[in-house]
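Q: Sequence in, structure out?
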Amino acid sequence: MTQQTHEPASPTTTLAPTTPFPPLAEPRPLGEHRVWPRTFHDRLTAPLPGLRAIARFAREGAVRPGPESLADIPRLPVESAPLPRVDSRTLAVTWAGHASWIVRTGGLTVLTDPVWSRRIIGTPARITPVGVPWESLPRIDAVVISHNHYDHLDAPTLRRLPRATPVFVPAGLGRWFRRRRFTHVTELDWWEGAELAGVRFDFVPAHHWSKRTLTDTCHSLWGGWILTHRDAGRVYFAGDTGYGHWFSRIGRRYPGIDLALMPIGAYDPRWWLSDVHCDPEEAVRATLDLGARRMAPMHWGTFILSAEPVLEPLTRVRAAWEKAGLDRKDLWDLPVGGSKVSEWSAPAGTRETARATTTNRHPEDHRTPTRATEPAAPNPASR
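A: Exactly. Output:
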């Protein structure tokens, strides 16, 4: 299918790596009510599965790793600890599991795709506990949502939030929140941004799709988020995405990404999932395309969504990082519940790391489990 870039063509001259192109759009008003198209099918970068693929999935059938790979569940790294102290010049991230992060930047506490439920529709119960108990969270200043699949948009978790919590969502998803009486909902299209208390929230493309019911395929948009604060740096939350051309374009538009929160799981078998989920090697490649200084893996070790062995994403991403010749300390492979803190000094025209610390040790290296015979992947509609 024809790819829709929704971005002006690149200029013929080479820009300095710190110069965004095109310039960032002016921030949209918070809580703005907007009219969107009924469908965003034109934003797909790959066709959705057709009858032939669905028939193959039905024929091959299995949706989980083999018993020998599930036996490694007790070895998954979980090290819950109190949240570290921060200030307005600090970037801190804590992995609660799956795509749920507590991001603290510029004095704000932001949740990404919060899922604190034990179970989501269409999957077994989570295989590791939530990394941070809900009652241990500080006041939540904002929430960002990448798309409407059940493992990223969890109604029971969101019901725990005060309805006045600012929520930043993809185009077309605002009505879902307004029906649930959220009063500060900001919907954004790709490449648009809004500001809250000195932190800029920009919505950027992803290689994915959206669906929550039988009749709403691609009726809302999907994507990732860039959070930028002048003194605390820039963090990229990828949400759910396959590998593709968007990463280099995001890096050009938002230069100087300090940390990329990248999905590395739910990738097997590749014939079914490569268009919508990165594998570990692709996640590392995407981080390089972005020009990001560091990467923190996510979207693994929480829910069983596909057929790879449960520990394989961790071992493969470590190997891919080393093979790429990248500094080991810049791979923030946190355990569930683990945190990392960076304090940034930002003299004019530069952004340099002053200090980076962790509240949890890196989980011990694991041997790569024996790979099970490749079964079929689950239906992407359940994601």
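The helical segments are 51-60, 67-70, 155-158, 174-179, 246-253, 270-273, 280-290, 312-323.
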